[in-house]
């Protein structure tokens, strides 16, 4: 693992993985999804509800995620901030038809690659 990750490079790598669960780069299989999340992953949905890793995996098994590119979802205003040597916060805006949200994802780089630690979506217009 690299000790000094360049934030510009990290930004490009993480942009390709977002929105999480909705890109080919993030993954397309249940094994991919499980691998991309740390064991204690959790998120706060745009509804304000809290979801843990087990809930997310169960949901994905029964309802395959929408492919963001095919659905015409647009991401913009990407920014990255280093939180620790191997941990970064990525923020961006996601437009899904009429709904616009701010997204925040905490990513950790491990020997297995990038993994999500936490995610939150906040509706700003619908």
From TrEMBL:
Q: Which domain of life is it from?
A: Bacteria
InterPro entries in alphabetical order = NTF2-like_dom_sf
Q: What is the protein name given in its UniProt record? A: Uncharacterized protein
């Amino acid at each position: 693992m690299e000790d000094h990750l360049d934030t510009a490079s990290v930004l490009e790598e993480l942009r390709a993985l977002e929105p999480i669960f909705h890109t080919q780069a993030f993954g397309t299989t249940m094994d991919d999804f499980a691998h991309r999340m740390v064991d204690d992953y959790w998120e706060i949905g745009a509804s304000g509800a809290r979801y843990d890793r087990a809930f997310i995996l169960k949901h994905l098994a029964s309802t395959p995620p929408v492919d963001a590119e095919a659905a015409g979802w647009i991401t913009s205003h990407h920014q990255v901030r280093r939180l620790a040597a191997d941990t970064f916060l990525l923020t961006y805006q996601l437009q899904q038809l009429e709904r616009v949200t701010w997204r925040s994802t905490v990513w950790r780089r491990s020997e297995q690659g990038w993994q999500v630690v936490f995610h939150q979506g906040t509706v700003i217009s619908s």
